[in-house]
Structure formats: C-alpha cells, structure tokens
Amino acid sequence: MAPHLTLVPPVNVAADRLDEVGDLLRCAADMERPFSVTLGPPATFLPANPVLYLRVGGDAALEPVRRLREAVFVTPLARELPWPFTPHVTLMDGGDPARIEAGVMALAGHLVEVTFDILTLLHEQRDADGVRVWRPLLDAPLGGPSVVARGGLPLELTAGGHLDAGAAAWFDASWDAHDRVLSGAAWAPAEPVSITARRDGQVVGVATGAFRDGEAHLERLIVDPAVRGEGIGGHLLAAYTSDVAARGASRLVLRAVAGGDAQRFYVDRGFVTVATLPRWRRGVDFVLLERALR
Fold this sequence. Notes:
This protein is of the alpha+beta class. It has 6 helices and 14 strands. It is globular. It starts with 17 loop residues before the first helix and ends with a strand. The mean pLDDT is 87.
C-alpha cells in the first residue's frame, strides 16, 4: 500500500453501493483544494495498538483534513470506532513494540512537508499467494475536475491514476464495441493468460498476456534475477505457447527492446522480427516479434 493519510478505516461496503461511494468521494474532493501539511515527528499508539506513525502537524493544516474526514465519514462508509480520529501517516503496523519505540527515538527529529491533492478509494484483496493487498478503485482529485467548453457544450476533465467504477465499465464496453467493429464476425472477448513458475513454494517467474480472435499476446515475462540462466524463462515461454495454442491461437505476438537480450532470447526460440518501434517506451527502441503456432 502506498503512503497515505487514512480518512476512513477499513469498512465493508456492498458492491451495489460502490457508485454511491464514488459520488461521495468526488463531492468531497470537489469542495477542497490541494493542501500542504507537515508530517512528523513520529509517534505511536502503544500500548493500545502497535503502530508507528508520523503526526500531521499544525492546526491550520489539520482543518482541510478534518473537513474531508467529516465529508466522507458518512453512510455507507461510517461505522462505530473504538478510538478517536487521529490524522496520521502509518510507518509500521503491527510491529514489535521494541522496534516501534526504537523508531520513535531514531526519527525524533524527522519532519517532512507533503502536499495532498487526491482522494483514493482502496479495495482490500488477496494476491495469488494469499497476501493481503490494497488496490485503488477510484481517484478523486482535490479541487474537482477541470471544465472546458466550446460552442456552449461544457466538458469535465478529471485526471487521476485509476478509473472509477462507472468510467471503467463504460470504457470496457466501448472498447469491446470498437473491437467488434474491427474484428467483425470473428470477435470474441479477450481471455487473460498467465503462467507462474515456483521453486520450493516461492515465485521465481511469471508470464502474462491475453488471447483473442486466434491471436495471442505475450505482454510480460520476467524471471527472478537470482535464478536467471537456469532455463526458467524458456520453460515459461514454452508453457505459455502451449496454453495459447490449445486455446486456438495461430500466432503469438510480443514486444522487446531492440537489440537486447530479450530480442535474442525470442529469436532463438523461433520468433521473427516483423517491425521496429522507434522510441516506443521511455525513449527506447522496441521491436515487434511474432511466431506462427500452426
């Protein structure tokens, strides 16, 4: 989870009320401009709770925090709490009390200025290994969306790292409709594909991509640097190729850095370079490779 200031602690919300939560966050964000605060020095909730955190300092700086808290801590996000609201940024949650006390002493003089400019809605999930993670569902920029107009037709533009549920649903449906027009009668929804390599229960490599309309894309393949050179990448690629071929793929397509080890790796395994992509990502040249599967 990225560093954050919690306005609402974890709470169960019914899936059919997520749109309501999104509207609540956007309304709250519209009313508050970005603001700066001083974080630090560190403190702890011991002995009641083994948490090391940075204080949010300054009465003037706390006012926008309190206003945002009051705006969002309502149904369906409100619930009874056993402790008062204390604005803070967590450094360690559930740590050893001795380490927490040592952290308070070691960081006693630590102060940092930060600016908050966005409200984010997080969703608790479990990753493939069962580890608890929080993933963003919605971003609402403080100050609200920018409004532009031409010919009397207003348009709101909202910047953020993640689409809200309504925008994501519209985007998925619209993109599928676009693909239907492009593919015609051959259209089919994309099928996600993933291969995971483990050794002694630990993940050492992953390959991910998708299959659609008889064509498979390998989007990412990565192997733990500690075990590279042991053939794991080749096994991942072979398993991925076998999987998409069984789904009916007639070719497998991917991108790699031009002239790099990855390009040579794929060419050695039957891929052909079919196009160059100058400065395709972060100013680096890439190539498009493909391999016929039947």
